Amino acid sequence: MLKNKTAHLNIGPSYGGINMDISLLESVGLTSSEAKVYLALLKIGDFTSKGEILKQSGIAPSKVYHVLEKLLAKGLVSTIIKNNVRHFMAAPPSRIKEYVGQKQKQLRQEEATVEKVLPELESLYASFKERATAEVFLGWKGLETVYGSLINDLKKGEKVYVLGASQGADEEKTLRFFKKYGKKCMDQGVLVRMLYNETARPYVKKMRKEGVYHQQRFLFKNTPVEIAVTKGVAAIVMLKQDPLVILIRDKETADSFIAFFNELWKIAKA
User: Fold this and answer.
1) How do the domains of the chain map onto residue ranges?
2) Which of 3, 22, 198, 229 shows a CA-CA span of 20 to 30 A to 191?
3) CATH level 3 topology of 132-267
4) What pLDDT digit, counting tens, does each position of 83-109 carry?
5) What is the pTM of this model?
6) For the domain 2-95, what is the CATH code?
């Protein structure tokens, strides 16, 4: 009964007699083994050799020196040699705060480096985008990547065309997803024209209740895919439980889809 209660509270086992959830230390960059060894050394409270560390931490003997070297590199352990045997002691817990500060400083330096190289990388990417390419994306995260590519660079007054729009296989997720990107378009002043399936009329009413308004008409009874198009980019979207998307970067292809959309728009119903 006590074991079940402990598991439910997510309290970790005792390392060196210290009852602590090691995930707290893992969250600041220590591995599970590093956290166990550090806590064991804190409990021991003095320089100690491998044997006592193994006893208190419970990690595999083959890993202990590798883990200790990692902790030394992080400044969380110190070492001395007694009688030709290395002994180790935990640094004060306040050292963890210094370690996190160093990580933050390193991250800021990495961000500054990225800012320096980003223009060149963007230039390389832009030259790549000029060639016709097709990419395949899977799942809702993949769909987010695609719609980010479609929308993020659009300016006020530019247009997105969606042909064969539907509520998808999972209407709740579809509604949540397109509510986010529909409002993003509205906030950016991007104009969206939607050609929905007739079966999507109830879904469209729900979108309006959520505050998403676009130009829309209805044409097809049902289509298995939808196509979203903007300048130079087209996405063929299959809204299954796990969406599948083909993203095409090619101006000719995108322009042909837009021309096709405009012809269908003329005969679609309000």
Assistant:
1) 2-95, 132-267
2) 198
3) Endonuclease; Chain A (3.30.870)
4) 889 999 988 888 888 888 888 888 898
5) 0.51
6) 1.10.10.10
